[in-house]
Amino acid sequence: MKKWKLVIPIAAVAAVLAWYAFRPERLVVNRRVDEAMPAAPSSSSPQPLVAGQFYSILHPTAGTATIYQMGDGSRVLRFTGFSTSNGPDVHVYMVASDDAKDSASVLRAGFIDLGAIKGNMGDQNYILGSDVDLSKYRAVSVWCKRFSVNFGAARLMPDRAMSEK
After folding, report:
1. Residue 31 and residue 142: Cα distance in Å, rounded?
2. Residues 6+ apart with CB under 8 A from 132
3. Taking Cα atoms as reference points, which of 113, 109, 112 lies closest to residue 90?
4. CA dist 154 to 49, 77, 86, 129, 138, Å?
5. Burial class (CB in 10 A: 0-12, 13-18, 19+), 157
6. Given strand 75-83, what is the order of strands in its sheet?
7. 106-127: per-residue pLDDT in tens?
8. Is the pLDDT reported for residue 141 higher than 70?
9. Is 54:60 a contact under the CB 8 Å cutoff?
């Protein structure tokens, strides 16, 4: 009988830790974001530099990633028509490779973390620092930091961005 008095609290703590690690409710709860394109400070409209379609890797992922040059010279990564699975600690990475086709290639190539994803659905913007060299960082990854897995990715190419103009 004394054994149960110890087992039940340990099992309860283990269940809470497992829930926190996996956050299973996030697989069914969507977080929609509908950000407008940032306003250009000058009269010139934002110019697309590179773009690519998201594709699924570990979780269904779709939409378009486009990097725009703003009138003031700053750059913005914009997701449009975006959707992916929700999950714990999901971030947006710029990957130093031609593509981010799997988790190993992202880790091997290196990346810049643009921060936590704003939502798993909808249009959203991420400011790129001036140190992001687009000749080196040519892919975007939707990355789950907690489990080191790549949900989905987009290969960025200049010709797609210019044809969508």
Report:
1. 15
2. 75, 94, 112
3. 113
4. 14, 12, 17, 19, 9
5. middle
6. 111-116, 90-95, 139-144, 149-155, 47-56, 62-69, 75-83, 124-128
7. 999 999 999 999 999 999 999 9
8. yes
9. no
Reference 87, options 65, 107, 57, 63; nearest CA is 57
The amino acid at residue 34 is D
pLDDT tens-digit map of 22-79: 666 555 578 899 999 988 666 688 999 999 999 999 999 999 999 999 988 999 999 9
Whether this model's pTM surpasses 0.70: yes
CB atoms under 10 Å from CB of 73, counted, come to: 9
Closest by alpha carbon to 94, among 144, 130, 133?
133
CATH homologous superfamily, domain 47-163: Superoxide dismutase, copper/zinc binding domain (2.60.40.200)
Look up residue 165 and give its amino acid: K
**Contact assessment for residue 54 and residue 142, using Cβ atoms and an 8 Å cutoff:** yes
Q: Can you tell me the distance from the alpha carbon of 158 to that of 48, in angstroms, rounded to the nearest whole number?
A: 8
Structure tokens belonging to residue 98: 């031609």
